[in-house]
TrEMBL record:
Pfam families linked: HIT (PF01230)
Protein name (record): HIT domain-containing protein
Motif (Histidine triad motif): 46-50
Domain HIT: 8-57
Location of the active site: H48
Domain of life: Eukaryota
Gene3D superfamilies named in the record: HIT-like
Length: 62
């Protein structure tokens, strides 16, 4: 789970996600997902982000 000690690395991860999105041609938009805790469907227990893009993102997600 994200904790106060992760403050700096989370900022780096979000900025890096933006850079990767640009490299992947997702300038028109993308979604960053962080699954946090069992109720958030976290299955890998280290901090990481998921970068989603390349198609229209609907709400609610699915």
């Amino acid at each position: 789970m994200a904790e106060e000690r992760h403050f700096e690395i989370l900022g780096c991860l979000l900025y890096t996600a933006k850079l990767v999105a640009k490299l992947e041609g997702l300038e028109d938009g993308f979604r960053v997902v962080i699954n946090d805790g069992p109720q958030g469907c976290q299955s890998v227990y280290h901090i990481h982000v998921h970068l989603l893009g390349g198609r229209q993102m609907n709400w609610p997600p699915g």
